[in-house]
Structures are given as C-alpha cells and as structure tokens.
Fold this sequence. Notes:
The protein has 154 residues and is of the alpha+beta class. Helices cover 34% and strands 39% of the residues. The longest helix is centred in the N-terminal third of the chain and has 39 residues, at 2-40. The radius of gyration is 19 Å and the shape is globular.
Amino acid sequence: MKPIAVVLFGLFLLVPCAVPSDEKEAAVRTAIQAFYKAFDDGFVGPFDYATEDWNHINPYGGRDRGREATLRAVREVHRTFLKGTTDTIENMDIRFAAQDVAVGTVTSIVSPFTSPDGIKHNAERHIRTFVVVNRGGRWLIMQDHNTTVIDLPK
C-alpha cells in the first residue's frame, strides 16, 4: 500500500506543473496565430504580438531589424505584390528552450501571388521558425524566419 501512496503523491506533484505549461504553450500559440492573422490582413492592424527588437527574415533572405523597420517592410510588400495573399497554418509545434523562451515551427500554405521578378507562384508551402519570449508577462515574437518549401525531384 505504501508504494501506491508514493506514486499518487508523485502524480499529485506533477499535475500542477502541467497546467502552467499548457497555459504557456497556449499563450505562445496565440502570439504566433496573431502574426498569421496580421499577415492575412496585410499587417495593417495593431502589432502587439511582437517585441520592440523583433527581427524578421523573409524567404528571399532579407532581414529587418526592429519592430518598426519590420512593419514598414511587411506592410510595403502587402500593399504591393502580396496584397490579398493569405498564409494558412497547417501545423504548429512549440518547444520551450527556457522558462521564458519558446521556439515555434509552423508549416503553412501561402495563397498564389506574383513576385516582383514576375514569377507566378501557385499556392506553396512555407515553413517558419519563431522565437517567442515572455516579456512583462506577455508572450511576444522576437524573431521569425520564413523559408519556402521546395519539393526536390526524386
């Protein structure tokens, strides 16, 4: 009977730890989902899902440093060749690097668009990595890196 009590006590200690982890993961997911909503809306709304020092790396390898510079860049492309383009989450996984740092990996489908070089892109898969940090009790995107997924010939 004593071993059962020890096991039950151990489980009792683990349960409270799981709830905050689930809440943390949900908060990280919410920040990332806010990014995708902003993408679909052309980045015109509030940008309270990102840190002041947000860094953004686009699929072409360009890098924007700081929230204001990033927003200028993404708003410009969404006013031009990405106007009306949507990016729909297929899958998202979250891992915690530390108590206040999470890494999110998202695969998504970007709707068709024509890039500035005149190339017509059909719906295509992208994979994006997010670094999300807890600052002031809020989970915010600090870094994202987007890559187009290209199927290689077999």
